[in-house]
């Protein structure tokens, strides 16, 4: 596959939240009332015991590009104390099967994000202007990332990230799975990844080509265990 760079700049979530350079996040502190404390939600349907596992430990073939461990994310600052991806064990095992499928076609998986402690979801919400909160998860209900059941990922070929319909963390229609305006090879790569993920029990999110939820996500509780405290295996 020939890698095709984007033909025109697209607005990432960071650019949208920043008001296209207006510094909304930096300047909103004095204009937005301090949010009321929010307690971590408890889902009574989540009866499966948590069993988080380090993805790189489980399958060293997986490549990581954890943007939230760097300032190169929509918040513009480091959110994770280390570049690590963890998920519930069945999720991780299924992801290893997807990696095997990708390898057979000459590709590999590139992981952007997986389990996200609830406190990070709350920080994202608290520091996002109210009129932009459609782009972040509400901590009052929690995120499927908080359950260790969501994976943000793409494909690479020989270590080079494959062109997709939009950049990661782009929240314009270019990132929607219904988008057909992207280059044909980018659309084909996205559909190929989707087919492999669905075959192993993942459900694609309609408006983010990179986001997949484990089909049984509801069985697992919302968690706030720090990434650095999760044991490898």
Give a structural overview.
This protein has 233 residues and is of the alpha+beta class. It has one domain: Muramoyl-pentapeptide Carboxypeptidase, domain 2, CATH 3.30.1380.10. Helices cover 23% and strands 13% of the residues. β7 and β8 form a beta hairpin.
List the helices and strands and how they pair.
Elements: H1 13-17, H2 24-27, E1 52-54, H3 55-58, E2 63-64, E3 86-88, H4 89-104, E4 108-113, H5 118-126, E5 150-157, E6 160-161, H6 184-199, E7 202-204, E8 211-214
Parallel strand pairs: 2-4
Antiparallel strand pairs: 1-3, 4-5, 5-6, 5-8, 7-8
Radius of gyration based on Cα positions: 18 Å
Which CATH class? Answer: Alpha Beta
Q: Compute the separation of the termini in Å.
A: 35 Å
* Whole-number tally of structural domains: 1
Q: Can you give the mean pLDDT?
A: 87
Helix content: 10-25%
Structural class computed from helices and strand pairing: alpha+beta
Low-confidence stretches are 1-10, 20-33
- The CATH topology is Muramoyl-pentapeptide Carboxypeptidase, domain 2
Helical stretch tally: 6
Which range does the strand content fall in?
5-15%
In total, how many beta strands? 8
User: What would CATH call the architecture?
Assistant: 2-Layer Sandwich
Largest sheet: 6 strands, mixed
- What is the overall silhouette? globular
User: What are the secondary-structure elements, in order, as H or E?
Assistant: HHEHEEHEHEEHEE
